[in-house]
Amino acid sequence: MKKLFLVLALCGLCLMEVTCTGSGGATATKEPVDYVNPYIGNISHLLVPTFATVQLPNCLMRIYPTRGDYTTEMLDGLPVVVTNHRERSAFRLSVTQGTELRSIIPVTWDQERITPYDYHVEVADNTIGVSLAVAPQSAVYELEFFDPSKPATLVFYSERGMVEASSEGTGEAPLLLTGSQRLSWNMNIYFAGEFDTAPESFGVLRNGQVLSDHRTEGRAASMAVRFPAGTKKVSMRYGISLISTEQAAANLHREQQGFSVKTVAAVGRKAWNDKLSAIRVKGGTEDQKTVLYTSFYRTMERPVCLSEDGRYFSAFDGKVHNDDGHPFYTDDWIWDTYRAAHPLRALLRPSEEEDIIESYLRMAEQMGTKWMPTFPEMTGDTRRMNSNHGVAMVADALYKGLQVDAARAFDYCRRGIEEKTLAPWNGAPAGWIDNFYRRRGYIPALREGEEETDPNVHGFERRQPIAVTLGTAYDEWCLSRIASFRGDEENAAKYLRLSYNYRNVWNPDTHFFHPKDSTGEFLPDFDYRFGGGLGARGAYDENNGWTYRWDVQHNFRDLANLMGGREALVRNLDRTFAEPMGRGKREFYEQLPDQTGNIGQFTMANEPSLHIPYIYNYAGAPWKTQKRIRQCLDTWFRNDVMGVPGDEDGGGLTSFAVFSSIGFYPVTPGFPAYNIGSPVFSDIRISLPSGGTFHIVAKGCSAENKYIQRATLNGQPWDKPWFSHDDIRDGATLVLEMGPRPNKTWGAAPEAAPPSAE
User: Fold this and answer.
1) Contact indicator for 410, 486 with CB cutoff of 8 Å
2) Which of these, 387, 556, 526, 384, lies nearest to 447 by C-alpha position?
């Protein structure tokens, strides 16, 4: 038995003692990490699949197979590091026993096994075995040659950068390899690798020939390393950095000793299991457990921690900074993740969420604008999608007791909403559309054939007038919440008033949010299914009017009033789930490719719809929420390669599956409240940072017994379809008695409804 002590101070991992007892640290008892299936969703329903990602929680080092999806026949070499979620990979490693050399050598793959912490595959028609395990900022490869009679060549590739090799290593690492690759105009990633086996030769690869040079830079910089016949195995360990090659080497040596995939995998397995063990369940099926823990793993992949020994490189100003004890995070698509991924972290890992929000405040300062970022990626704030939902993260955190600098946050969120243009996919200063919104309280739509006049409007993404109006109304409500938290009643009242701007585009005749032109007239003959062009972007965004009918997260009480009361709200919800597509699937998805995962006009595949099944709780019909949640989970979140209904976007969809599987959901970030659904497990224990446990007991829970008959919270009768964060933050026990038919009176009283804006 060999003991290894590794320091993994980054990405929230602490000093761990690891005992290596077998391959991958496998144990006899099935732990949460053993339920993770990275292949779920690896074939998409229409657009982007999930990727089988090997990465420790929120860490910089991540890889996935270099292919399109599970059906792709060839691997384009072997991955080194993925630098931007689902978009780009830096460097590439190719391995061959053939004579034709290229910068990237495609190979067949078979016998693949992937966990969150290691990767095993046989390539080149089952002649080479590949194993890899990851640490926070380093990884190790083991390459086994099943026919060692042939020489082997490894090719290391940088798309735009430098590669250099040296034999001036040690006995343990006789070959050293360093490299860099440009990621953006002001950002590079660096590599430092070591081989455990001395090569026969190495040199720059150019035009299929191996030269005597040991350094190259530019496009397609490639280094070939040749090992003689008789070589059975070669191992390579490497570190990465956004600061320098020296820091990449320091990251490697801090995290790894030796060249053992098993040793590194054991550490990674423990890291994931510690994280996933925050939720423990009994009951349910094995498939439901797999969906739960795989969704939890997906949610905990991002954002990514960039701190390296107390420093980090920020693309937001192109400089290296000290993190002052607060790790720096980025690569977070807030439009997707503010809804449930951030609330899940605020519940389970509040100190992490505090550091994430502080990172975003620093980004605002580093950009020089003091505008809260909306889409912070590795290479900066790309300002994708619409609205400024970082404000929701802040409001939600403050009212759940997290330590956030409310003064800076209010200022930067306000600036982002008011000084930056509201035009989607744009980071320019406010312009004509913004001035119109300030005067009239809505974004105007263009009539058929009317030309765009605001240069801030993206040619493809268009104005998205309803989506932006409703999203900004919600953002302004969140801003009012932050102001109120600070005791700034003047701004609290101002932004609360502005949070009703959604009323300006409400059509009282049709009971839909309806695009208006600049004169205040509703667009004539507008089709709520198909109006707005591709992705409905001339009116909404990626989803049609049936989805955006419900995009008033902060005020369902008022939405019910606009519709004519609670009964009308329920009827309209029912109709949403029942209304046919109106066209064949091909024609429907040709215009609305993001709106897959349909149940009627409801789409499970896109984030603005995630809260819709829970709205019944606000209208006296919680039993219908219970029915719909089970329907959504059973239909669209499954343990198979097509088991994610749409673009997952780093926790955007899967955080819905985590919350909904365990029985509750944060419908309105900014209110410290959770709506009750229908848990799929009979016993759920959630470990809280206070040291307490939130214990949910769903008596008799089964596929048939999905309806709540009665409930108690801490032994007291509970007749509300929601509870507050304070109700559970120090530990609590919620007991739900489940049955096969609904109790239509439980939680149905008007005063039992979850909170809405006043």
Assistant:
1) yes
2) 526
Question: Considering the entire predicted model, what is its pTM?
Answer: 0.95
**Beta carbons of 589 and 704 less than 8 angstroms apart:** no
- Pull the structure tokens for residue 124: 């080149």
Mean pLDDT of all residues in 335-349: 98
CATH classification of the domain holding 615: 1.50.10
Is the pLDDT at 88 greater than 90, yes or no? no
Residue located via tokens 């982002």: 416
178 pLDDT above the threshold of 80 = yes
Tokens read off for 596:
């897959």
Digit-coded pLDDT (tens) for 12-35: 443 232 333 333 444 468 999 999
Could you tell me the sign of the dihedral formed by the alpha carbons of 642, 646, 648, 652, in that order?
A: negative
- Number of domains comprising the chain: 2
Record the tokens describing residue 58, joined without a space. 């929120």
Angle at 129 between CA 127 and CA 133, to 5 degrees: 165
Domain that holds residue 588: 280-752
The residue from 276, 311, 327 where one domain ends is 276
Q: At what angle do helices 566-578 and 556-563 cross, to 10 degrees?
A: 90
* Residue 28 pLDDT: 62
Whether the link from the prior residue into 455 is cis, omega within 30° of 0, is no
The answer to which of 72-86, 270-284, 568-582 has the lowest mean pLDDT is 72-86
Burial of 586 from C-beta contacts in 10 A (0-12 / 13-18 / 19+): exposed
What was the pLDDT predicted at 16? Answer: 31
Q: Are 44 and 290 in contact (CB under 8 A)?
A: no
Average pLDDT over residues 553-569: 98
Ramachandran angles phi, psi of 319, nearest 5°: -125, 160
What is d(CA 163, CA 178) in angstroms, rounded to the nearest whole number?
Answer: 6
Last residue of a domain, one of 276, 302, 331: 276
Give dist(CA 630, CA 616) in Å, integer. 14
CB atoms within 10 A of CB 408: 18
645/680 Cα distance (integer angstroms): 19
Residue 691's contacts (CB-CB under 8 Å, 6 or more residues apart) are 731
Measure the CA–CA gap between 65 and 108, rounded to whole angstroms: 12
| DSSP notation for 326-342 | S--EE---HHHHTTTHH
> End-to-end CA distance of the chain, in Å?
63
Helix axes 489-498, 465-485, angle to 10 degrees: 160
Residues 244, 355: one domain? no
Q: Alpha-carbon distance 651 to 499, whole Å?
A: 27
CA dihedral 491, 493, 499, 500 (to 10 degrees): -150
For residue 202, name the pLDDT band (cuts at 50, 70, 90).
very high
At 482-497, the pLDDT tens digits run 999 999 999 999 999 9
Contacts of 219 (CB under 8 A, 6+ apart): 159, 160
Does 145 lie in the same domain as 79? yes
Distance CA 214, CA 223 (A): 8
* Token pair of 374 as six digits: 């909306």
Residues β-bridged to residue 301: none
| 75 vs 1 pLDDT, higher one | 75
